[in-house]
Amino acid sequence: MSLRPRARIHLASIADNWRTVRASQTGGMTAAVIKADAYGHGLEQVAEALHFAGCDHYFVAHSFEGELARNTLGPHPTIYVLNGPDPYEEPLYRQSALTPIINSQPQFQTLVTWLQSAGKLHGGYGLHFDSGMNRLGLPIGDAPKLAAATQGMAPSLILSHLACSETAGNAMNAFQLAEFKTAAGQFPDVPISLSNSGGVWLGPDYHGDLSRPGIALYGGGHPPEGLPLKPGMTLEAPILQVHTAQAGETVGYDATHTFQAATPLVTIALGYGDGFPRSASGKGFASVEGIRCPIVGRVSMDLITIDVSAAVALARPGVFAQFIGPDAPLEEQAALAGTIGYELTTGLTPRVTRIFET
Ligand SMILES: *Cc1c(COP(=O)(O)O)cnc(C)c1O
């Protein structure tokens, strides 16, 4: 048996989550965001599973991710590249029929050069307007100018991105929606896309023609109470050793934790070398056969020690303890480590074996 940590990837659950997002939209289509190796779940495998479920629109951040997706998905689906094109990438965009998202004036120039050199792009192109996030995108005030400049070469999608979609009450959402609608109004017949996962939960006004959920597909984020999203992965690692620390002894690097009483401990083959954050030291937990056991002391590169007082009879070498999954909710574990679900799953390193389950 391998003593490596493993992430069992629940492809059927990811497909179910995509259907759940789609069912909670009152209008528009549902894309899938599969950037960063599908948030650490495996870009190709996730793309294939979602394609089988009926998803025809995918978003990646980089053109190389788009190429990977194209090779997996075949010729039909639309693959948008969020970060936009570099002048030298024309062959790649054309060969893989990728849809560049234009985020800036220089990227618009790149697009115009490509269209002039070899005609229209098979996958079309999108225009991304910055409606208030100040991160990436064309200035929203440039919409009239761009509408004029794209006569005869209309975009296939107009998009923007919400800064505060996870906080329903934040006034920023309504502000960005209004700004976006004004800009999109300059392109009367072009489909619009505003919402990530959180945006979908904000309701029908935000659904547009195409939503762009990412984290919801992987069972993270903060969906409405009662929505049955399922964990996209189970991160688990084997118990290597069972032992007992005596009262007054300490555990781990820097001896940060001192035991008040004799305490049964197990040491598990998972650490920050696998992408499990060191900031979970003394804060996170593992589930041993459904029983929660706190991490004690520091998370080290290859090892974590947990207090198994509540699960003594179950904790044996070779048993896998769960750190993310049905018994260890992603966002709860992430919050204990001072981070978010996105960072936890994308941060898992190649040392974690991915096992794909359907
Ligand atoms: C990453 C990303 C998404 C997906 O966001 P989630 O919060 O994971 O649903 C959507 N749109 C853009 C522009 C993104 O960068």
Task: Write up what this structure looks like.
- The chain starts with 5 loop residues before the first strand and ends with a strand.
- The protein is elongated.
- With 358 residues, it is of the alpha/beta class.
- The chain contains eleven helices and 20 strands.
- Strands 3, 4, 5, 6, 7, 8, 9 and 10 form an eight-stranded parallel sheet that branches. Strands 1, 12, 15, 18, 19 and 20 form a six-stranded mixed sheet that branches. Strands 2-11 form a two-stranded parallel sheet.
- Helix 3 packs across helix 4.
- The chain has helices at 11-23, 35-40, 43-53, 63-73, 90-95, 105-118, 143-149, 171-184, 197-201, 330-336, 341-346; strands spanning 6-10, 29-30, 32-33, 57-60, 78-81, 99-102, 126-130, 138-139, 157-159, 192-193, 210-211, 233-245, 250-251, 257-258, 263-268, 285-288, 291-294, 304-307, 320-324, 353-357.
- The chain has two domains: 11-218, Alanine racemase (TIM Barrel, Alpha-Beta Barrel), CATH 3.20.20.10; 233-357, Lyase, Ornithine Decarboxylase, Chain A, domain 1, CATH 2.40.37.
- Residues 33, 35, 82, 161, 196-198, 212-216 line the site of pyridoxal-5'-phosphate (PLP).
Question: Which features does this protein show?
Answer:
alpha/beta; 8-stranded parallel beta sheet; 2 domains; 6-stranded mixed beta sheet; Lyase, Ornithine Decarboxylase, Chain A, domain 1; about 20% strand; 20 strands; binds pyridoxal-5'-phosphate; single chain; TIM Barrel; about 350 residues; elongated
